[in-house]
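Table S5 (text form). Sequence records supplied for joint modeling of the two-component complex.
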Amino acid sequence: MNILGSPGLGEKGSDNISIPSRRRFLQLAGGIAGAGLVLSACHQRTGPTDIYVGSGDTALLNFLYVLEQMEADFFTKAVTGAYIGISQLEYLALVDMRDQEIAHREYLQGLLGKDAITAIVTNFSGVNFADRTSVLTNASVMEDIVSAGYNAAAGRFQDQSFPQSFCKIASVEGRHASYFRDALSHNNFADSTVVDVNGLSQAPAPSVVLTTAQQFLTTRFDSSNLPN
Amino acid sequence: MDFRNILSDIEKTDPEVFERLSPRRTVLKSFGAKVAVAALPLAIASLFRKAYGKTTTAVTDALNNALELEYMEFNFYHIANNITTVGLIPTADQPGFLTIEAHEKGHINFLKTTITALGATPFKPNYYTDATSTPPYVPKAFDFRASGNPAYAPIFDHVFDDYTTFLVAAQTFEDTHIRAVLGQMPGWAGLPVFAQAQQLLATEGRHAAFVRLIRRNRNAPEQPMPWVSNNIPPLSAVPTSNAILQPFYNGEENTHQGSTAIDQLPGINGTIPSVSASAAFDEPMSQTMVMSLLAPFINP
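The corresponding structure-token record, covering 528 residues in total, follows.
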């Protein structure tokens, strides 16, 4: 299963998505240029209750903060109602990952300070936490999304101190993703849907990652100024 | 040398090369025709430097160090998968190690192309042109049994005829590889290669977890998780392995990121346990330390 489009989506895929939106952005900006309202006018809110993630580095940090909130909440629920017949290793893995994702979430919240978005609402209605396959499958999809999310953000920060610390998380998210894929199907820790012919893990555009993550989220986001 | 072929080669690993070089792709396509042949190499180098950002020798030296580690890993898995006595890797685990070997080969190709594009010469292992070599397989360049080192040799002597030993080596190499690339990341800050190196790192994280999980399921004495718990090295039956492999993991127990004490952040019950505060982040290691630890595996 390829969660983020065609294999090797990578840069070309992200261009397909980002260039039209960039053009649209420029048209909008151009239309009101000179009115001194460029920035505020670009907040194309898609719904009245959507959470605006900000722009630039703040948007990227909030984007990662959304992903980590999603994961932390998932593992908290998975540990609390651990499925029937869970092995000792699987339980330890869920507890470890819960605590590691909380660490990432709290770290990001600290970096964001007053710019952090509010707590989000997750939607795990499609997950049966009492069922091993359901938990592992959804965890696997989620970890692939988050791993892609860190790669998506890596080259888009202005302040280079952010990606320098997040690359230390990126390899850990790769470890997490590997674990669930292997637990479901041994040796399938990195197939061609998530790693390309150069051995590079996927790095789609942030907007693509956020759209894919939306399947686990009730909260909707205004990501119109998320670097893409 | 056909400039367009070079570009098309680079495009395979960097689909945005044309956009990096010039927003007007057509200018590039006719580039070769417009520049005098004698001036071409100079013009190309300058073009690439402009496209890939400020490139210094330090940037390409760091990429070459990453390339050297990829050669080492590729040769390690290539021998285990193809050359060594049949039966080292159980059938059930073979597909995974073949995947890892293929990824390491992909990393070699990616790094060689990138280094060339930046105007530098890609690293070649010793014995690259030896008669037994079919690069990237360069068997004489490495001694994975570490037979010349009295401290390492007892631990790694059976690396290619004992699966438990092979797994200890594989875990050590994978975890150290991650630390080595993390150690080089600051040198690539702000360059396109930074994000690509992180994509490589994420893949290495998948490899490391695969090896660790196999060891866990084979009842490795230290009961490893797929991530690094504190600074615990893989234990082998050789009593000295703990002391010899400890330096590969020293520093991994770090619980501080920048000015943030991760183990003081709120967790489920009180603060985040220090083992998770540490495991949530992999930690960099300097090139000097990495190469000194790996030296016994590399033939002079």
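Note: Chain B has two domains: 3-51, 57-297.
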